[in-house]
Amino acid sequence: MERVIMGNHAASYGAQLARAQVIAAYPITPQTQIIEMLSEFCADGRLNAKFITVESEHSAMAATIGAATAGARTFTATSSHGLALMHEMLHWAAGARLPIVMAEVNRAMGPGWSIWTDQNDSLSQRDTGWMQVYCESNQEVLDSVIQGYKIAETVLLPLMIVIDAFVLSHTSEAVDIPDIATVDRFLPPRKAQYKLDVTTPHAFGGLVTPSHYMEMRYKMQKAMEEALGVMEDVDREFQQIFGRSYGLLEEYRMDDAEVVLVTSGTITSTAREVIDSLREEGQRIGLLKMRVFRPFPTERARNALACAQKIAVIDRNISFGQGGIFAQEVRSALYDAGTRTPLFNFIVGLGGRDVTPTSLRNIATFIFEHETPPEDIIWWEVNK
Amino acid sequence: MKDHPAAITEINLAHEAEMPPLPMSIGTTLVNKTGTWRYFRPFYEDKTPPCNNACPAGEDIVGYLALLKEGRYEEAWRLLTQENPFPGVCGRVCPHPCESECNRIELGGAVAIHTLERFLAGEAAARKLSFVAAQRIDEEPVVVIGAGPAGLACAYHLALWGHPVTVYEAAAKPGGMMRLIPPYRLPAHVLDREIANIEALGVRILTGQRLGGNLSWGALQHYQAVFLAVGQSRSRKLGIAGEKAEGVLSGIDFLARIERGEAVRLGRRVAIIGGGNTAMDAARTARRSGAEVTILYRRSRKEMPAAEAEITEAEEEGIAIHYLTAPVKIWTENSRVKELECIKMALGEPDASGRPRPVPLPGSEHRIPVDTILPALGQEADLSFLDETIQIAQGQIATDSATVTSRQGVFAGGDVATGYGTVAHAIGSGKRAALAIHHYLRGESLESFPPLSQAVHRAQKSLSPTVVRLENLNQDRLTFSARPSQRRLDAQTRQQSFDEVNLPLDEFTVRFEAERCFSCGICNACDTCLIHCPDVAIKRDGLGRYRIDYDYCKGCNICAVECPRDAMSTEEESKWKE
Predict the structure, then answer these.
(1) What is the Cβ-side half-sphere exposure of residue B572, based on CA atoms within 13 angstroms?
(2) Contact B32 A198 (CB under 8 A)
(3) What does the pLDDT look like over B267-286, one tens digit per residue?
């Protein structure tokens, strides 16, 4: 059934169709609509789940962890400072190998106080052991939640669905809401191998001595590596049933492209338009959409960019003292390529500043005019 | 789950790959007896509910409400009547001090305990339930003087213990003051049935036998124990001129004559003097007999001792109440009452009773034309039948807390010894006497009786004496629920009928009402402790009783804190108490 819904509600529908059993959440703009709709689903019986209202995001994740430890399929959602407050528990969820799926609406960190989008909140959680999927459309949000459970429950790592504030979270689009029986076929109920059970008591999360700790971390990394393949398998199976697929990343009009823009989130959609019009003008330009950020699809990214002569990574984030975070990751992926393709790192749209087609067209023009980046970080449309 | 594993499993993993990917114990954790960490120890301790504590008859109210709400009416009635054989009477006429203490008051109104008690009495009558007689343990009967609530309660409890009992009653029918309660409050068949239940235990009731009259002390000489429960039968006098005129009749005598079915010529205008329940009974009875009734009371409504409902219902029935009015003189014509001269009063400083003293207002004298005057100024004990071996104090028979008088083998209770003036108190007093006599006949000590302000109990329940108040309950878990309103016969019908005014609640409402009970201080197996124990250290058996596994209880005390009804307590572990 196709309906016009907001990105936030696409996440709610995703959790409902996945038959999340426990939802523990705390409201925060611009995420609140996600859990509001889920609370309505729980209240009116459209979702048979325990909805736990908590006093903070830290508790939201703690409760989610508890429920997931007991074997339940769990969901929560947060944003920005809420995600930051969860930080300790994010490590816990990953270290405890719990397949939690969370919607995270990208909102800039304060101060200056902001409710608008950028990626610093989610990217700050890069090293917690959570998988991260950056979405471009409302349909992708819904589909990624459903896929997310299958991936997370296979590799036993939590997964974060990342949604741009307002540009995606509050924007309505036509979304195909699949029939739940079909989703059931794709996503059977969770079967937890390790879980809290009073009939066979085990202790969870206890002290681990140096003799075993490192092995556990090794296994997490191995699970991340395994996840790359699992994600592609799940995506393929999803396509067979639902007719849609997203890949770890997406190459758009990359045939013979000399210049490649690398984007994530909703900037990708804007870039598609700009690429189309530049192609009409005869420019050999393509687009690489980075969808999965953790695990980072190093090999896929390296292959996609193998033939590019210039690369522009558009970062709606900044790692202070270094630069754009996607740029670092892409640069690192290319290290083994043996080439030294010039890589332009543009910092754009922080704190929700609009990134328009003109912005991206001007970036393209800038690259056409420069052989190499004039500086390590190119701050775009900023009053210096 | 086994509480204690027979042996701890040895776990040897050959390979790192066999380890789970997450930090979890491989074997069970039962080997780790975390109870050793405990500093505070939670434990189950039932405490005294405020209603139980307030009941002069010592009923286990919370206990029978719990059974009632489950529809276990016979068990509920048996638990109730273990302490009080008169639930039909008390469910109707007791001023229910239990409800005044109910912790529900601010959360929808007190549980309507009296209605539930009445319901159980009705169920017992409908099912023809009777008390179970005990094996006789004595040959010689105990003598009870007076078949009022105290005497009959005493006889009942003694009979339950297996003592033969003979009750002597001066009046023609047993019941004492209960007999004089008008039928619109207490239908006679309710009282008759509950007395018949006691008689069915083998208690002999001999009526028309007045001690000091046709029954001599000498006739009682050979009995080992005598319980005096003659009540307060003598009406207080007005002490004004004209009191002996024809047409002046005490409220009690009036009610007694009506009860006997005698015709009482009231005339058209009846004045009642007094503000207590007897005044209300006399007024409402006169009203039902067709008279125009006026109550004269010397203080204001606020000080009126009658139950609030009684006053309201009297007013609804068209009875006029003149407050701050006192009689001064009765004017007669042909030695019959003609007019009542009254004076208006003002309220002054508090007197010995704590109430403001009424002060006459000079010049406010006025006359009210009347045909009959019914003074109801309270009663006092008629102690003329006593000899000097029995000591008297403040117009009552002097007793200790075990109802023992100054004469060997003679006990006294009820209004003649306590003057509390309610049926429930008299029932409690009779039970106390029965317990004392039971001990006495077996040569046991009578020293451990609680003071008269506390009820005695047959049930051997180990309750903490601590009374649970609202602040002791976990108020986060208490929700508002409204008390059902009392349905009454309409005021118009009431003026022409002696039918019962208060209508019973239907079974559904009764069950719902019993559900409103918080079960203060008494575990009702709600599972809150079980659910909240983070260590799964609380176990529940098939009977809804809990046990804490102290091998694993870490002493977080969440169970005791979360308990909605204060049925758990905590104490410092003895090993730390140094």
Answers:
(1) 5
(2) no
(3) 999 999 999 999 999 999 99
